Amino acid sequence: MNERTTPQARWWIRRGLLGIVVVWGAATVTFIGMQLLPGDKATLIVGGGSLGGATPEVLAAITREYGLDRPLIAQYGDFLARLIHGDLGTSYQRGAPVAELIWSQLGSTVVLALGAAVLGFVLAVVLATSTAARPRGRAVTSTVELVLLSTPSAWVGILALTVFSFELRIFPAIGNDGIASLVLPWVTLALPIAAALAQVMRDGLERALEQPFATTVLSRGATHGRLRWRHVARHSLIPVLTLSGWSLAELLGGVVIVETVFARAGIGQLLVTAVTSRDFPVVAGVVILSAVVFVVVNVIVDALYRVVDPRLRETTP
Amino acid sequence: MSENGSAPLLTAKNLTVSFTTPRHGVVAAVRGIDLALGAGECLALVGESGSGKSATARAVLGLTGSRATVDAEELTFAGEQLLGFAERDWRRLRGARVGFVLQDALTSLDPLRLVGDEVAEPLVVHELGSRRDRDERVISLLQGVGIPDPRVRARQYPHELSGGLRQRALIASAIAASPSLVIADEPTTALDATVQRQVLDLLSDMRDAGTAILLISHDLSVVARLADRIAVMAAGVIVEQGTPDDILLRPAHPYTRELLAAVPTFGAPGRIFRAAADVDTSPRDSPTRPVAPSRADPSRPGRSHPIGRTILELDAVSKRFRSPDGTWRQAVDGVTFGLHAGEALGIVGESGSGKSTTAQIAMAMLAPDHGEVRLDGAAWSGLRERERQSERHRIQLISQDPLSAFDPRFTVERIIAEALGQPGRRGAIKARAEVTALLRRVGLDDDVLHRRGRELSGGQRQRVAIARAIAPRPEVLVCDEPVSALDVSVQARILALLAQLRHELGVALLFISHDLGVIHEVCDRVLVMKDGTVVEHGTVTEVLTAPRHPYTRSLLDSIAPDRSPSPASANTDQHDPALTYTGGNQL
Which of A101, B8, B13, B201 makes an SS bond possible with B36, Cβ 3.0 to 4.6 Å? Predict the structure, then answer.
């Protein structure tokens, strides 16, 4: 047993360290970006209020309070030290800690993104498995998928709003209340993901169906359904996993658009407001959070590869 | 299984299978064949790829695919008419009453599922037994096909098993529901000789236990061991059918004779050149002739004392690799040999013996951990890649699978022009004359110039690979299993070509193969490798006639068939094809 666990543990440690490096890199780039942006930070911090022209004394006081007069390397050190303790700084605009602001908005965004991811995945599995290597169904669905892939999600969202909210009045147009308000955002977010995943999944299925083992399975008396769902579907998960990085980026970008279109509170809205009002600590916080999510999801995906394909369990990463 | 002893289990009369293809319209793969197979009998269908034997097998299972049309006057299994079967009816038959074993169990078993689950699938599908019964049945099946530690193996994945064990597991799965007929489509093609023998023994036991076996192979030496009757197929028809003695000793049809002649063997030296003569390089290539007689002469004067300087030298070369579990595996351990200019040196061994690693070290594609490789007396493995680059043309590689060694977008013209130092489309046009000359040399016409790798046959591909390898005028050709993926008759022609080129160009061959027969056709000297070390070396005649190491003996035994033809044939003329099969025993 010992021989088995050691490489496994080594793998996890390696991945963990790599993840920390990635997050550190993202934090550093964010920090540099914040320094490169034009304008005096003290003015920005004050400017958010209605004070207009602040006196030099006030600006000096703020500069001291935020440590903006210290050398850059010291500021960078502070920034990292605070980050390690989970302190993302204080919002220029709202005066509240960034971590708290993000935390308060995180719930609704996670529900939106996770729901869309699950919906997209399920749609993709159903579409791909039912139409792979079946010429007619394939032709129809792959055309629809291509259309969805090449349509911006903002446009899909607006279309959905027009039809289902304004015309048919089935779902509410805006807001955060209950499941009904989530349906349209979910669908809007899920469609492009489902379309892309279905394409690669169908491709994977068709390749697996051409493998000799598919003939073996049929020669045992199995039905085509059993072949597809019990054998081949698992093979098609490998390209789907490969695309998961893309899916996550699509999801994060989509959240910003969908929350804006449907006027939902959430991380996306928080980010948009922060960018327009140049509230850099909040922007930096969201960027670092995205980096963490990316790292975590990638580690999970790498682990899933090894669950799906036993052949990968033995190769050292 | 058949109720009345004489009624055949499987009958086909005037069976045809045709495919509708988008490019060529309707193509008939099987054109009216008759078959009859009784319980406890083994019928072998033999022919080259494309002869229609696999289509015949799949027709019996209804697995020819949606593009195929199957028709026959009669196609019955245990008295039941198979024509007009609906998918439901086929499913009742498949796995339960007819088992199917495909070649290459690595891809024929679902690589993502446990071996035990794969073996149990026919039982699950046909709802035979409870879950616990099935688990027990799987263990006893695995045991029955000779898999040690069946409980452990059932919990492993196909890739964790060796080729031989995988093939046994596949057979276990095919017989799980005790079918009365087992169809085995090239069941041993991907296996080493010793493992091949074990699998054939297993099929033979099944036959003796009353199961009917339809055995499909391109290799007459495989079926000779097992079959009660042999049907030779060519271009969709059965050209000859009879007992093994009939087919092997008194082949009536010229095609059968060609198949027999093409089997590489050390029992009948020189034979391949006759097989090659009718199709091979243009008749004006007379240099084949001087080589052949020297091979027919068993004493072969001079062959054991190669003249010429040592061109490639390996000096106590070792290489180890790290296994996934963190331990080290010694792939090559202290291998020393010299290859003389113009000589053909064989390395024989089973998969995992380190022969391919040795080839890669000789090519300086891999750096040895210890020891040194010298090319023409100068440092080779010790050089930096930058220094080696200008010398690389002197040693060229021919691999087992040329298709994956070609850029799929490149035409033949570009592939060869690139090797001539004229890359790109323009280079190809500039080098046209040279490319054509090289193609002629390897027996190809201009009409392949603009084809891509996929559009060539296996034999043509290997010829292009050879043309590419000889383009930069190398002194050494490293051939790593160059004919293992080819049909026997094509194999013979490629081997003849290599021998001819060696003679004409004076190029030395480092020839790697798991097949002693192939080595014997081409090489002067041979090294036998096992577990990374050279266990025996000497001239081919010495090693094959008087093997010293027990491993060499077991290699020789495994290619000698158990089915010896009738004693009368032992005295026949040396050129009788029968010797192909007695050869092993004589040695």
Answer: B8
Helix (H, G, I), strand (E, B) or coil at A188: helix
Confidence of residue B302 (pLDDT cuts 50, 70, 90): very low
Q: Which residues of B touch A (CB under 8 A)?
A: 61, 63, 91-96, 98-100, 102-104, 107-113, 121-122, 125-126, 157, 159, 170, 173-174, 322, 324-326
DSSP reduced 3-state for A192 = helix
pTM of the model: 0.69
Mean pLDDT for chain B? 81
> Rounded to the nearest 10 degrees, how much is the dihedral formed by the CA atoms of B397, B401, B404, B408?
100
**C-alpha torsion sign, points B261, B262, B263, B266:** positive
Note the pLDDT of residue B270: 37
Q: Per the CATH hierarchy, to which homologous superfamily does domain A102-313 belong?
A: MetI-like (1.10.3720.10)
Q: Does the pLDDT at position B278 exceed 70?
A: no
Residues of chain B in contact with residue A308, where contact means CB-CB under 8 angstroms, are: 112
Instruction: Look up residue B176 and give its DSSP letter.
Output: T
Which residue among A7, A218, A219 sits closest to B326, beta carbon to beta carbon? A7
β-pair partners for B337 = B314
Q: What is the tens place of the pLDDT at every residue in B379-394?
A: 998 888 888 988 899 9
pLDDT at B145 over 70: yes
**Gap between the Cα atoms of B399 and B356, Å rounded:** 10
Tell me the per-residue pLDDT of A112-121, one tens digit each, with 9 for 90 and over.
Answer: 999 999 999 9
Give the Cα separation of B459 and A221 in Å (integer): 36
Report DSSP state, residue B11: E
B237 sits in which H/E element? strand B237-242
| Strand pairing class (B42-46; B229-234) | parallel
H helices within B287-383, ranges in order?
288-296, 355-362
Mean pLDDT, rounded, for A170-185: 77
Q: A198 pLDDT band (50/70/90 cuts)?
A: very high
Is a pLDDT exceeding 70 seen at residue A42?
yes
Distance CA B165, CA B199 (A): 9
**β-strands B25-37, B525-530: how paired?**
unpaired
Contact A216 B173 (CB under 8 A): yes
Is residue A69 classed as helix, strand or coil in its secondary structure? coil
| Strand B42-46 relative to strand B25-37, pairing | unpaired
Domains of chain B: 39-53+86-257 (3.40.50.300), 294-401+473-555 (3.40.50.300)
pLDDT (average), residues B545-560: 80
**What is the number of other CB atoms lying within 10 angstroms of the CB of residue B378?**
9
**Out of B109, B125, B325, whose CB is closest to A213?**
B109
Domain boundaries, chain A: 19-84, 102-313
Residue B557, burial from CB neighbour count under 10 angstroms (0-12, 13-18, 19+): middle
Instruction: Identify the pLDDT of residue A47.
Output: 63
- Are A178 and A266 in contact by the 8 Å Cβ rule? The answer is no
Provide the pLDDT for residue A183: 86
- Residue B98 pairs in a beta bridge with B94, B181
The dihedral region occupied by B264, where left means phi > 0, alpha psi between -120 and 50, and beta the remainder, is beta
- CA–centroid distance for B341 within its chain: 29
